[in-house]
Design a protein that fits this description.
The structure holds 2 protein chains of 2 kinds.
Chain A lengths: L2 E4 L4 E4 L6 H12 L11 E9 L2 E8 L4 E3 L3 E5 L3 E3 L8 E7 L4 E6 L5 H12 L1
Parallel strand pairs in A: 2-5, 4-7, 6-8
Antiparallel strand pairs in A: 1-2, 3-4, 8-9
Chain B lengths: L1 H11 L18 E3 L10 E4 L7 H4 L6 E4 L4 E11 L7 E4 L2 E2 L13 E8 L2 E2 L4 E6 L7 E6 L5 E7 L13 E4 L2 E4 L4 E14 L2 E11 L5 H11 L7 E2 L2 E2 L19 E4 L2 E4 L3 E3 L12 E4 L5 E2 L4 E2 L1 E4 L6 E6 L13 E4 L6 E3 L12 E5 L2 E5 L1 E3 L2 E3 L10 E7 L3 E4 L5 E2 L3 E2 L4 E8 L9 E7 L4 E4 L7
Parallel strand pairs in B: 2-3, 4-11, 15-20, 19-21, 24-38
Antiparallel strand pairs in B: 1-2, 3-4, 4-7, 5-6, 5-9, 7-8, 9-10, 12-13, 13-14, 14-15, 16-17, 18-19, 21-22, 23-35, 24-34, 25-33, 25-36, 26-27, 26-32, 27-31, 28-29, 28-32, 30-31, 36-37
Classes of the chains: A alpha/beta, B mainly beta.
Chain lengths: 126, 460
């Protein structure tokens, strides 16, 4: 996962799927503490929700107007919650696993809608 | 002179001249007195009909005045009055020179003697003579006496021991606009000429500069300056003897006790018009003086302050700058910077604000962080890193107070002048092995500076 920040437009660019939310969080923090970034407001907040038994559920939320953007391609976001605006890019398909209920959303031109997924789940369980 | 008049009148009533006295009833009246009790001209004696005294003889009289030669010559008596005069040395300056070439016939003060103020029918220097007491170890005093009316005139002086004089008079030697101190070693130089200088945020015109070597303390500089204008000074100041120096400009008020300025409580209050070369100052005296500009404005050195931050850890990045009031830094300085690639010097489009560090500090140029070693006018020098490829052309600049990745647990800005209270914004971030929740807050910077401690919350 390679992340770059467009400070002028407050956009975080990722060229890979985000499958480890903790690593994503640390990578963002690493960006934030640089000389170029320090004059800009923080990108995100981070929380770890205890799931019991030592397990935690990480949650990242973008703040201060920062957004996330992927290049064209198929990408997934999982491993925790990520609350952010994902900029639409032609040809970019992003599957985001979200919340403790593991809701799945898709951003981009095409892909399954929540209704499609619900229908499929019902069909599978029936 | 009353005795002289009585003696002459006594001769004048003799029936004949006797021995070497050529005055008798047979000759003309030798003298007349304006009136012993004439309050306007008490004891003003006029010698008549060729009777006269010379300068040497005039030294034998100490009260009243003598006019002779049909009003062509006048000796006027001067009487010094005031506090602290007993035993103190006095000298008289007339027309830019010490009277009688500095040879005194009068004892230590207070003095009472006659001085020739009119010759060949013309008053010397309009009849003005100056009585001075500038004895080493004592506060100075002088008085301009108008002797043109004759009679006895008063010179009011005030002398007292100067507790700020601790050196012996032989510790100094004078030169042209210089005084050399043996102990401590240093040379005080007086440069006469108009300069425009800025102290703190006040830009004013001055008419002379006091500078010195040896990082002398102001208490030592004061003594050297007093020596420069004491009675036996051999220094020349702007072409005149130091013992008659009084002030830089005729329009200024005299500072009688100390013509270059007084010293009180360790603070030097420079006389009007004198600029002090701040580079000569001892580090402990940076704020121990006060100036008066040519236009009479008191000017005090700036209050030098700094901002600091604590509770830091190595690899923290810390940025402190002025708050813009809306959650960010005030980066609007209104000036730009221009410099060539690889250069370590940047030229600003205008002088930075008064509360920017002019020693070592931080600067952002086109948002690139640099440090600098000094700012002089519009020149920023010692940039690190050097200006990158492409250079800067009218690039936006601003001046954070701290802008670095620290390796310490605390950081302080370079010192800068206090101009007014302001709100500073601090950001501390660390995304390394032990990330913290980004810390950001504002804090006041006042006349004593400002400080803040970072709050380190683990970012989990």
């Amino acid at each position: 996962m390679s992340l770059t920040a467009d400070f002028a437009n407050r956009i975080v660019h990722s060229d890979a799927s985000i499958t480890d939310m903790v690593a994503f969080h640390l990578a963002l923090r690493d960006i934030e503490d640089g000389a170029d970034a320090i004059i800009h407001p923080p990108i995100h907040t981070y929380k770890e929700v205890s799931l019991g038994g030592g397990a935690v559920f990480p949650a990242v939320a973008f703040i201060n107007g920062w957004t996330l953007q992927f290049p064209a391609g198929n990408w997934v976001i999982r491993g925790g919650n990520l609350d952010c605006t994902i900029n639409p890019v032609s040809g970019a398909y992003i599957e985001r696993t979200q919340s403790a209920a593991y809701a799945v959303t898709s951003i981009g031109a095409g892909g399954a809608t929540p209704a499609d997924i619900a229908t499929a789940v019902w069909a599978y369980t029936q | 002179v009353l005795d002289l008049h009585a003696w002459l009148q006594d001769l004048a009533d003799n029936p004949n001249v006797t021995a070497d006295d050529n005055v008798s009833i047979l000759g003309a009246v030798p003298s007349e007195l304006a009136g012993k009790r004439n309050t306007l001209r008490p004891s003003a004696l006029t010698l008549l009909n060729g009777v006269n005294i010379d300068s040497l003889t005039s030294q034998r009289f100490n009260f009243g005045s003598v006019e002779q030669g049909g009003g062509a010559e006048l000796y006027t008596g001067i009487n010094t009055i005031g506090s602290g005069l007993t035993g103190r040395s006095h000298y008289v300056v007339q027309n830019g020179a010490k009277y009688n070439s500095g040879t005194k016939w009068w004892p230590a003060g207070p003095i009472r003697a006659l001085f020739k103020v009119k010759t060949a029918g013309a008053l010397i220097n309009s009849g003005i003579v100056t009585v001075l007491s500038r004895e080493w170890g004592y506060a100075f005093s002088h008085f301009d006496v108008d002797c043109s009316a004759g009679s006895e005139q008063v010179a009011a002086l005030s002398v007292s021991a100067d507790g700020n004089i601790s050196r012996l008079v032989g510790n100094y030697t004078g030169g042209a606009n210089t005084v050399t101190s043996t102990t401590p070693a240093g040379v005080v130089t007086l440069t006469f000429g108009t300069v425009t200088k800025t102290l703190g945020n006040v830009t004013k015109q001055y008419k002379g500069t006091i500078s010195w070597t040896g990082a002398l303390r102001l208490a030592e500089v004061y003594q050297a300056l007093q020596w420069a204008c004491h009675e036996n000074s051999t220094a020349t100041l702007n072409g005149i003897a130091g013992w008659q120096y009084r002030k830089l400009d005729a329009a200024y008020n005299d500072v009688q006790a100390a013509p270059f300025g007084t010293l009180s409580g360790g603070k030097f209050f420079a006389a009007q018009g004198w600029w002090i070369d701040v580079n000569s100052l001892h580090s402990a005296d940076l704020q121990s003086y006060q100036l008066i500009s040519d236009d009479g404005t008191p000017v005090v050195p700036p209050n030098v302050i700094a901002v600091s931050a604590g509770n830091l850890m190595a690899t923290d990045y810390i940025l402190i700058g002025k708050d813009n009031g809306s959650g960010g830094f005030n980066t609007s300085t209104g000036i730009t910077g221009t410099g060539s690639a690889s250069s370590t010097t940047l030229t600003l489009s205008g002088a930075p604000a008064g509360d920017v560090a002019t020693g070592a500090g931080y600067i952002r140029i086109a948002n690139n962080p640099h440090t600098y070693t000094g700012i002089s006018g519009t020149t920023v020098s010692g940039l690190s890193p050097a200006i990158p490829t492409g250079g800067y052309s009218a690039a936006a600049v601003w001046f954070p107070y701290i802008d670095k990745q620290t390796s310490q647990t605390s950081e302080s800005s370079g010192t800068f002048n206090y101009v007014a209270d302001f709100t500073a914004r601090v950001r501390v971030r660390n995304g390394g092995a032990s990330p913290i929740v980004p810390f950001e807050t504002t804090f006041p910077v006042t006349v004593t500076g400002g400080s803040v401690n970072a709050i380190r919350n683990a970012d989990v």
